[in-house]
Amino acid sequence: MSAAQQIIGSANPLSESPIPSPTSGERNDHLWEIASLRQALRDGPSTEQQNDATKRPAGGISLDVMRSLYASNSGPIGLRRSNSSVVYPGGPPEFPPVKKLNPLNKKRILVSGGAGFVGSHLVDRLMLMGHDVIAIDNYFTGSKTNLAHWFGHPNFEMIRHDVVDPIMLEVDQIYHLACPASPVHYQSNPVKTLKTGFFGTYNMLGLAKRVKARFLLTSTSEVYGDPEEHPQKETYWGHVNCIGPRACYDEGKRVAEALAYSYARQDGVDVRVARIFNTFGPRMNWNDGRVVSNFIVQALKNDDITIYGDGSATRSFQYVHDLVDGLIALMESDYKEPVNLGNPEEYTIKQFADTILQLVRDHKERCGEAAPTSKVVHLPAAEDDPQRRKPDTTRAKEVLGWAPQWSATDGLRETVAYFHGRMQQG
């Protein structure tokens, strides 16, 4: 048995309940550019291990409901009139089931970067929980299609806005996620990345100060750089190259943390900081240069899987639903020091590539397609790439009661099915 098969374990196909087809009164693909992924999910994760995952609640929300938001082709057909009103020729839109909250418990929440990969999942969860949500995004890496299923909902508002410019809103909480997070994106315009890291955080903190909102900064494990401590605790100050090709992102997040705690000390802003480790899942951009998306797309296309370096570098990967659980738990807690949010399962990059290749083979065989014959090839190592990265999540367990519920393998099955569906739709 290969190392990848040992990680994945045995797989016994199980049937999943059918997902109804969209009706003629649902989403207009030309307007919203959302492909139907339902069949792909039905043909995708179907092992006994994955069947257990479908029963697992995601923050009190059914996983089937969460899945439907990134796999559904349903949504309102909205036609905008010249007076800016919207009419729905197919009748009133049907939205995902939203909890009805007591007005005293209902919050007005701002999510910057809300149309992005993680931001859109966070918006989904907050909406399902019954809150009023405002998402702002400049669509540099995000897409309005990630949130199109909420367009027209009375609890939801989408604003095109770049956080480097101030914005005036009345909110109770601010989740500040806006910042390009993949090397392809943040290295394409390093000055803009640094401006977003500083001015974007400055503007969001200024808003939090004015309206007395609680503020959560999504920082990153990159603040630890190429760590000399392993695993990394929140008390570790890091080992960062401040002039390297990754510095625009690493130092941007470090200064964002410093700015957040300066506002807390000087102006009494109620601050939370999450240090996020590698995260993957549906709605990732498949051309963002990250390990997970690269490996899955290459295997699905039957291309060789490219590893930069000898593959001995290690990473820890968490599924996006776990991260959203942690972000909400941190926001609702009274804890104000930085908290690591990540999955401590550690893989070498080579081991991870083998695992993904095996999962893609299994998925394609279940779909009746030829298994990929991709092989792993090695390219020169990327400059300044950290050699080891693994979170110490003791603090998250103790102060938030949070721990990852998804293994990397469970999450990868879902993600492989998602990417396969997207690729089938072109």
Explain this structure:
- With 426 residues, the protein is α/β, with parallel strands linked by helices.
- Helix content is 37%, strand content 14%.
- The protein has one domain: 3-Layer(aba) Sandwich (Rossmann fold), CATH 3.40.50.
- The chain has helices at 3-8, 29-32, 38-43, 48-54, 63-71, 117-128, 183-186, 190-211, 247-267, 291-300, 320-332, 349-366, 394-400, 408-424; strands at 79-80, 86-87, 108-112, 132-137, 156-160, 173-176, 214-220, 271-276, 279-280, 305-308, 314-316, 318-319, 339-341, 346-348, 376-379.
- Helix 12 crosses helix 14.
- The radius of gyration is 21 Å and the shape is globular.
- The two termini are 35 Å apart.
The CATH architecture designation is 3-Layer(aba) Sandwich
Give the class-level CATH name.
Alpha Beta
Q: What fraction, in percent, of the residue positions are helical? A: 25-40%
Q: Which homologous superfamily in CATH is the superfamily?
A: NAD(P)-binding Rossmann-like Domain
Protein name: UDP-glucuronate decarboxylase
Keywords: Cytoplasm, Decarboxylase, Golgi apparatus, Lyase, Membrane, NAD, Signal-anchor, Transmembrane, Transmembrane helix
GO cellular component, one term: Golgi cisterna membrane
Family: Belongs to the NAD(P)-dependent epimerase/dehydratase family. UDP-glucuronic acid decarboxylase subfamily.
